[in-house]
């Protein structure tokens, strides 16, 4: 049984000297992060397609079981809304080739304005994608969480091509008002999306947003322990990404989630042991 866990990034200023050695060359940070977590969100690919050598470096720093969930470029999903972006998509797919099996899923995050009327465009886009990759879709339009017909239409579209539906659970975050600058910023930017616990494939992906207080983050993810444990017992292999507004403790929290699941299911493959982190130094 394999449960992969990870964060929204593999390097963060607040992790230096705590989770990652400091100083550490940029080309070694992903390797150090991969000692803590076994997956990472590829948010940077939304803004720019990386150079081939950059992607090759990512592959060298991780083993083949490590999972990248890479976001499609915004020109494809938000600017062109899945239509007329064949060249941009081709360049992106060519760029990520060095990852091989590490490219666990290509993440199609759609804007909040992309609603039920746009599902036919999504269906055409998915049918045109190469079958050599897995795909996962994240939607934010309210109808996909409240209208049974819209839910059914989207599910049928995804199931037809073997794509997953990524939930972004922000309910724990929005339960009470923000108490820090990072939480106040996230309060204005993050979508208010409810949890969705139905998996469509054998590789479900969850994005969970907690609070800057680790105890409240852990409290908020308790329902997901039952869901993820159930998926594992069904033979699925989930990936869970743990976010907090400041992400200061995200690697430790991701490992803690994995540990709480493994306490229920000891058969789950353990996480790697992180490399020792020495004291911070100026030299």
From TrEMBL:
Q: Which InterPro entries match?
A: DUF72, UPF0759_sf
Q: Where is this region: Disordered?
A: 177-198
PANTHER family associated with the record: UNCHARACTERIZED PROTEIN YECE, UPF0759 PROTEIN YECE
Name of the protein in its database record:
DUF72 domain-containing protein
